[in-house]
Every structure is written in structure tokens, then in C-alpha cells.
């Protein structure tokens, strides 16, 4: 009977669904992917929901530092209905702790100008932090990506 019980237990373990537990790196990368999808859907409110209320944004085309929800909302308010897109390319993840992750990399913004798509390669660094079980952007720096000289 013991052997039979072990066989049944083993079969049940193999058939039961695996529970995936995401770590800080996966959680932080999911925030960036969610941010990019919201940007591409031209939904400024959804973009802003990815930031903490006290977050800091150094926007790609902003001459000022945007601090807090109001300032970040103002920065992204012009996004609605533009058809702008964002595609994340190369990225690197640095886990600082169970509650803080830095991501850095390249992304490409595509906007419309005179009915034609215009590419704006850019680079980013984001600090994604966990508070109360949720992950959001605490700091986001974005700037044009310097292209190699030809």
C-alpha cells in the first residue's frame, strides 16, 4: 500500500498546475511592459497609473523635472489620440533588493508628422519599487538615444 500511495502522490504532483512565483526582476519588467502598452494605446491615464504618486520623471522632451502625479499627468496629457507608439528594445535589469529594481535600456518612440511615422530612438532608466505589495515607477529618466556617427 505504501508504494501505491507514493505512486498516486507522484502522479498528482505531476498533473497539478505549477504555481509561478515572479521575483522582483520579473515584476519590474512587467511594469515597464505595462507602461509601454499604455503609451502605445495613447492612454495618458493608464500611463500615469504606472507611477507612484511621488514619482519623478525626467521626460524625453521636457525641459523640467516632473514630480508627482499632477506634473506627470500634464507631461503625458498630449499623448491622447496622437497615434504615438513605444517599443522597448534592449534592456538590462539590476535587482537592488526585494523591493527595488533598476531597469535601463533603449526604446523607440514613433510619432506622426505630416501623416508620416517619425522614429525617435531614446534611452531610459527606471527605478521600480514595491510598496504595499504593488510595483510602480518611482523614478524615470528618458533622453534621446545618441546614434553612432556614420
Question: Strands, helices and their partners?
Answer:
Blueprint: H1 2-15, H2 24-40, H3 44-48, E1 51-58, E2 66-67, H4 68-76, E3 85-97, E4 100-113, E5 116-131, E6 134-144
Parallel strand pairs: 1-6
Antiparallel strand pairs: 1-2, 3-4, 4-5, 5-6
Query: In total, how many beta strands?
Result: 6
Tell me the β content: 35-45%
- Major sheet, described briefly? 6 strands, mixed
Give the overall form.
globular
Fraction of helical residues = 25-40%
Q: How widely separated are the two ends?
A: 75 Å
The class by helix and strand makeup works out as: alpha+beta
The average pLDDT score comes to 89
Rounded to the nearest angstrom, the radius of gyration is 21 Å
- State the strand order across the main sheet: 2-1-6-5-4-3
The helix tally amounts to 4
From N to C, what is the helix and strand string? HHHEEHEEEE
Low-confidence stretches: none
How would you portray this structure in words?
The protein has 150 residues and is an alpha+beta fold. It is 30% helix and 43% strand. The chain is built from four helices and six strands; from the N terminus they run H-H-H-E-E-H-E-E-E-E. The protein has a six-stranded mixed sheet with strand order 2-1-6-5-4-3. The longest helix has 17 residues, at 24-40. The protein is globular and about 75 Å long.
